[in-house]
Design brief:
The chain is mainly alpha-helical. It has seven helices and two strands. Bound molecules: heme C. The site of heme C has 29 residues, from helix 3, helix 4, helix 5, strand 1 and helix 6.
Length: 144
């Protein structure tokens, strides 16, 4: 009779592969990016959005799982480069203080800080690259 059993080492390799692809940390950005992002966050954003990213009631909105943080990258980059003053509502709370622009930060710094925010305070979203920041900056310069 022909043996139909799959060799044990193939089974182990397959299981390992499945386990590794389930690792939730796999999507985390590199530690160096997160470290650089935190330094910029602490200097540029913390005073308003706070160390825990939960903001200040009635004044500065939280950065935890909001549609601006987890939403389209372009929109989030735009907020940081140009500032933001539309009245918004998060978890039933309204905010309308203006956020100042941060165009003094370079493309790398903005990509680092936004990648950090998108992967802190309970968020888990794709990193933002310096090239993506550059594109939005160019569009803003053209008046878009
Ligand atoms: C001077 C205070 C201040 C600073 C500094 C500041 N913000 Fe804001 N931020 C605000 C306010 C106020 C709003 C709400 C603006 C509105 O209602 O239109 C806001 C809104 C936002 C939003 C969209 C709304 C939300 O909560 O998801 C994002 C994203 C954001 N800020 C990120 C940042 C990042 C990243 C930095 C640092 C590079 C930063 N902010 C620095 C005050 C600030």
């Amino acid at each position: 009779m022909r043996r139909r059993l799959i060799p044990v080492n193939v089974v182990i390799a397959a299981l390992l592969f499945i386990l590794l692809s389930l690792d939730p940390d796999q999507t985390k950005p590199p530690k160096a990016v997160m470290d650089r992002g935190k330094v910029i966050y602490d200097k540029e954003c913390l005073s308003c959005h706070q160390a825990d990213g939960l903001g200040v009631q009635g004044m500065n909105p939280p950065l935890a799982k909001t549609k601006w943080v987890l939403g389209p990258k372009k929109q989030m980059i735009h907020i940081v480069l140009k500032g933001f003053s539309d009245p918004i509502e998060i978890n039933g709370e309204s905010f309308e203080n203006p956020m100042p622009p941060h165009h003094h930060l370079n493309d790398q710094e903005i990509s680092d800080v936004l990648t950090y925010v998108r992967n802190s305070f309970g968020n888990n979203a794709k990193p933002i690259t310096p090239a993506e920041v550059k594109k939005v900056r160019a569009a803003i310069a053209k008046g878009k």
